[in-house]
Design goal:
The chain is α/β, with parallel strands linked by helices. It has 13 helices and twelve strands. The protein has two domains: 239 residues, 3-Layer(aba) Sandwich (Aspartate Aminotransferase, domain 2); 127 residues, Aspartate Aminotransferase, domain 1 (Alpha-Beta Complex). A seven-stranded mixed β-sheet has the order 1-9-8-5-4-2-3, with helices on both faces. A three-stranded antiparallel β-sheet has the order 7-6-10, with no helix packed on it. A two-stranded antiparallel sheet has the order 11-12.
């Protein structure tokens, strides 16, 4: 990482450093323009190409593109037979979509605390939460770190539980050389604007079994018979049949046009984020904040988020003051996440209390995500470092 150019002026509001801004280039723009000019902007051949490319990249059996990771989780649970009367275990340290998808299936979410170092779900906590009603486990690969898939798969196999991996942060992540998202019955990915492969909105389901992939494909487009999108193609009109009450969860060719080229750049962008990650680790090593751990040798980290913990007992500033101060420095930050039991809806519906999940509660009160986009310049990174050091040293 080259050193900051001291002649560069102080960052102004006009060039506010946006947290998680995607790195989009001419390739994405030209592909979108080509798709728009073609007249086929809905679900079509570009979506199918992206599915094939993503399946090959993750070395998966089957892939179905959808409009979000939330949709991917919902459809995966429905295809797993999750419904009323079932319980699904997931982590207290996750985005609300993970829990909401369980609720939308009519099932009951059950929370397990996370590990204090990886921030991923604790296998021991999962074991303690299993009942005769447990149907599935949703491990969340947090910030690009893989969960302990050996332990979780052992638990699932002994109990005959479905495993639906939430890989929203983990496009590049592997565990013992195997891509995450391919251990369980399903792997669910996000292509939201801040993700490592960004299409503004979008998601993908990886499935082990062809019948599950086919079922998800039908559910994702109103419950219409397979390849209903072809009914307007130059092969001639084809009648469709509605065989289930499905959803409107399909990806469009405009999104896939961006995704195709984002996926082509995924390894190069991974290297860029790794370089920023290492620069941050070196620059903050002497500060009284907790830095993310490096992944053990068996895990390839996806470097999706660089999260630090701001402990007010160790610094002159608390987490929320730090967020406000960084904003005044014209630098965007994120919070990933306040623990699920901190939100009033879940407290009211399930009577969850943050104190029941002490690790997630502490992390949720202290965590801050710093910019880690491959779009960052060396000077952007040095701006972030300088601001953090001014605020917490």
């Amino acid at each position: 990482m080259k050193q900051r150019n001291k002649n560069i002026p102080q960052r102004s509001k006009e060039n506010f450093l946006i947290f998680g801004a995607p790195d989009l280039g001419e390739e994405e723009l030209n592909e979108v323009v080509s798709t728009v000019k073609s007249g086929w902007i809905g679900t079509g051949p570009k979506v199918r190409l992206f599915e094939k490319d993503f399946r090959n990249y993750r070395r998966a059996s089957f892939a179905v593109a959808v409009n979000s990771c939330t949709a991917a989780l919902h459809l995966s649970m429905l295809s797993s037979g999750v419904g009323p009367g079932d319980e699904v275990i997931t982590t207290a340290m996750t985005f609300c979509a993970t829990v909401n998808a369980i609720i939308h299936c009519g099932a009951t979410p059950v929370l397990a605390d996370c590990e204090p170092d990886t921030l991923c779900i604790s296998p021991e906590a999962v074991r303690a939460k299993i009942t005769e009603r447990t149907k599935a486990i949703i491990p969340v690969h947090f910030a690009g770190m893989s969960c302990n898939m050996d332990a979780l798969m052992e638990i699932a196999q002994k109990r005959n539980l479905k495993v639906i991996e939430d890989c929203a942060h983990a496009v590049e992540t592997t565990y013992r050389g195997t891509p995450v998202g391919t251990f369980g019955d399903f792997g669910c990915f996000s292509f939201y604007v801040t993700k490592n492969v960004a299409t503004a909105e979008g998601g993908m389901v990886l499935a082990k079994r062809k019948e599950d992939a086919n079922h998800i494909k039908v559910l994702a487009l109103h419950g219409m018979s397979q390849d209903a999108w072809k009914r307007f193609s130059d092969d001639g009109y084809k009648h469709y049949e509605v065989i289930q009450a499905g959803f409107k969860y399909n990806m469009t060719d405009i999104q896939a046009s961006i995704a195709i080229h984002q996926l082509n750049k995924v390894e190069l962008n991974w290297l860029k984020r790794e370089k920023i990650w290492r620069r941050y680790k070196d620059a903050f090593a002497d500060l009284p904040i907790t830095l993310p751990i490096d992944a053990p040798r068996k895990i390839r980290h996806g470097y999706h988020l660089f999260t630090v913990l701001i402990d007010p007992d160790k610094t002159k500033i608390n987490r929320d003051q730090f967020l406000t101060a960084m904003n005044k420095e014209n630098i965007g930050t994120g919070v990933h996440y306040q623990s699920i039991p901190c939100h009033p809806y879940y407290q009211q519906r399930f009577q969850w209390k943050p104190s029941q999940y002490p690790v997630s509660e502490r992390i949720g009160n202290q965590t801050v995500s710093l910019p880690l986009s491959p779009k960052l310049t060396d000077d952007d990174v040095e701006d972030v470092i300088a601001a953090v050091r001014r605020l917490v040293k």
